[in-house]
TrEMBL record:
Gene: Acsm3_1
GO molecular-function term, one example from the UniProt record: fatty-acyl-CoA synthase activity
Protein family according to the UniProt entry: Belongs to the ATP-dependent AMP-binding enzyme family.
PANTHER family recorded: ACYL-COENZYME A SYNTHETASE (PTHR43605), ACYL-COENZYME A SYNTHETASE ACSM5, MITOCHONDRIAL (PTHR43605:SF6)
EC number(s) per entry: 6.2.1.2
Keywords (A to Z) from UniProt: ATP-binding, Fatty acid metabolism, Ligase, Lipid metabolism, Nucleotide-binding
Residue stretches making up the AMP-dependent synthetase/ligase domain: 3-122
A GO biological process held by the record: acyl-CoA metabolic process
Annotated protein name in UniProt: medium-chain acyl-CoA ligase
Record carries keyword ATP-binding: yes
GO CC term (a single one): mitochondrial matrix
Keyword Iron appears in the UniProt entry: no
Enzyme type, top EC level: ligase
Amino acid sequence: DGRKPANPAFWWVNEEGEEVKWSFEELGFLSRKAANVLSEACGLQRGDRVIAVLPRVPEWWLLNAACMRTGVVLVPGTSQLTAKDILYRLQASKAKCIITSDTLAPAVESVVPDSQFLKSKLTVGKGSRDGWLNLRELI
């Protein structure tokens, strides 16, 4: 029909050459699903804080868009944070939710007893952990 394909809205490539490409329509759909996870599964409301301690995986960008959609405040953290750093951020921000990778989940679990505001924990990964919701499965 003479039309050229649309440019992707999102194009991610990791060190192994694995690619994720989303059209604007797909990005909108997935960010709405992620927003539903934050508001329904995690019970977050406008103004609540969520800490994301993730490497720059595709879900990082979905969560940014989902937080904008829901009015939830995203507190970003580098994946180099220690358990002590994570605890400080949880306490200072009064975050109700934390989102991290399978690799960093043990550091979070070690400080959960001292995090009185934390209500839900999301992991971004292929496996499941006791007491954690899996973002990929929920989306």
